[in-house]
Amino acid sequence: MNKRISPARKSLVAAAAALLLTAGCTPAPREAKIADPGTEASGTVELWHFFTEREAAAIDAVIKDFTDTHPNIKVTVKRGQDDSKMTQAIGAGNGPDVGLSYSTDIVGKFCSSGAWVDLAPYLKRDNVDLGRLNATTRSYTEFDGKRCAMPFLADAYGMFYNKDLFAAAGIAGPPKTLDELTADAKKLTVRNGDGSLRTVGFLPLFDFYENAAAHLAPAVGAQWLTPDGRSAVGTDPAWKTLMTWQKDLVDWYGYENLQKFRAGLGDEFSADNAFQKGRVAINIDAEYRLAFVRDQAPKLHYGVAPIPTSDPARYGGGYVTGNIVGISKNAANPEAAWELIKYLTTNDATIVKLANTLKNLPTTTGSISDPGLRVEPEFRTFMDIFASPNSSTSPPAASGPAYQETFGTFATNWQAGKVADLGAGLADADKQINSVMTLGG
Q1: For 35-44, how does the pLDDT look when each residue is reduced to its tens digit (9 = 90+)?
Q2: How far apart are CA 197 and CA 183, in angstroms?
């Protein structure tokens, strides 16, 4: 089994990391002089990443390529490390030289706290052209003018749908609007004799698999923050549109029915994934699911499409995020660390190799157009979502993921019927978000 991190787990881990940083547990960075241009890096560098099993093997392969071409640098790899472990290690003064994170939500906190160092001096010295990076990836790897991270591949979220179940229900193609998604979800749902759910067309719970509020926000064009950095969830009407649509579908299924159904589903990143098993006909997920399906459910007859939207003019986009990599503030060998990061994030051939094995999206103009990049029709759909002007990401904040986690608590209460008035609930969530952001998370 290959394991990634669920949105709920990501939020908790990122919040824990933010709390550690807010508490001031990271020591002052070591004074490090940037080497002169042309100086060859050497020594040992330690890399921590979150991948496991099949995906970790892909990382090992490119690390071997790196050491073959950089014989003076030895790389020690620790797999399966989440952000909280990395932050604790940095706080204790023994963090890795290079950290690879799954959470762009942590960038604001890592940059503002100094947990990851500013890469600008290295970029300037080595004449790295940031214009080769996709604009969205550039935006989520820096905060407040400080670039403390580089993008390590990217993710674009779209919709997976089961073609066999669609055909059986008489549905010709994927829904493009939220109203169509609702209608198709109802047609695709099969109930048992006692009214319990046997097959669900679309499972609308916010805390199911990848149904994070951030991943669905582009469906309605919802904005998280105002231009002055305060919460927008209480004033942007798009949030009311999204929450109303979601709750109407939850109520049609019955909240308790959905909870019972979900309790019998497999882990998201196991071979028992509900979509891969045909238990859920429509699922929100990212391009990396293509590799999981190929590995775990090769006979599944499925298609992919952009996420349905409330406004047809916005169709074609989705949520864009990715993995990020940076140098720890107490790295023992920052020069070798930067050499590894530069290789992983700016070398087109390396990026293509990783994209082909992990089925994540390449992030440089050269790798995107490289003839060696394997672009199946399904993968092309996610590349189009990645490039769409209708796609968006969640903005970085000095408090890290605090605003998303606070809203997530509201969303789970809302879907459970614990919020009587949506407008008042969103206004209260607004106040809570502003409060936690003021306190730094």
Answers
A1: 888 889 999 9
A2: 17
